[in-house]
Amino acid sequence: RHPDRATPGARRIAVVGAGLAGLGAARALAGTGHEVVVFEKSRGLGGRLATRRVEGAVLDHGCPVIEAPRDGPLAGEIARLAHDDVVWLPDPGPGEIAVGFRSGQTRFAKALADGIDVRRSVRVAALRRVAVGVEIADEQGTGHGVAAAAILTAPGPQAAALLEASGEPERAAMVAEAAYHAAVCVLTEVSGESEDPRPVIPGPSPLAAVSLEWRKRPGPHAVVARLDGPASAALIDATDRDVLEVVLPILDGMLGLRHTPWTQVKRWRYALPAHALDASLVAVGGSPIILAGDMFCGLDLEGVRRSGVDAARVAARTV
User: Fold this and answer.
1) Could you tell me if 319 and 33 are in contact, meaning their C-beta atoms sit under 8 angstroms apart?
2) Nearest Cα to Cα of residue 305 among 8, 11, 28
3) Is-above-0.85 flag for pTM?
4) 270 with 156: CB under 8 angstroms?
5) Which residues of the chain have pLDDT under 70?
6) What crossing angle do the helices spanning 106-113 and 20-31 adopt, rounded to 10°?
7) Between the N and C ends of the chain, which has fewer C-beta atoms within 10 Å?
């Protein structure tokens, strides 16, 4: 049965965003028999579990390492769904795991999405209230059917804009208070090594960190260098050339650059949540729109996944 032709409100639940929270919500709902469809504005899956392939190198430019409690649900899903591709990294602390994936962090997102109806390159612009839930429309005005409930996992400012367009201005104003730090990253190849055995090492200001991608998988000595908060804020709208003029000399001093290095610049406008919103905004009485994601728990990946699962439970009670 095609989801768009399902009986309106008949146990169909929409999820906006295919990051860790959205995919966690979708799997939880699908596991209890609900009809689920996930809408993702980009072509890829995973949100921060983002991977790029450049010149034979695999680079994780969103979340370089997944850290989670060793006995928690996230670690269990990694072991169950993607164990064949996992790279176990030095433990970050007692009772914790740190992992990467040989084929890139997006491998885990793809494993989470297996069997789920995920519609990529669909930017949801409105969740219009109807008698039986919400009608989903994209930015071109195209309808994508009706759902009894919708779980919204976009970053706070984007979630606020969608709530405003969906007729919830008061809630939108409160969600809009979610603040984020930007992150500007440079992807390139270096010629040297580091004596520091960790896969992610601190960098001298204005670099916050440098991910040594070859510590996670065979291949070129590729790195992802992330600027710190103030530098990222200053350069988020700058040209690639301006960013490279800041970053490349620092990397050259740290690890040496190839004579003709390839480079890419990646910008994350909503990279690091500055503070968590109150959980009372997750669900508001009478609204079929439930919120989840890092706006409530920061960059705690176990918490991000849990927020999606908790939102799924709330959504299931509305149908």
Assistant:
1) no
2) 28
3) yes
4) yes
5) 1-10
6) 20
7) N
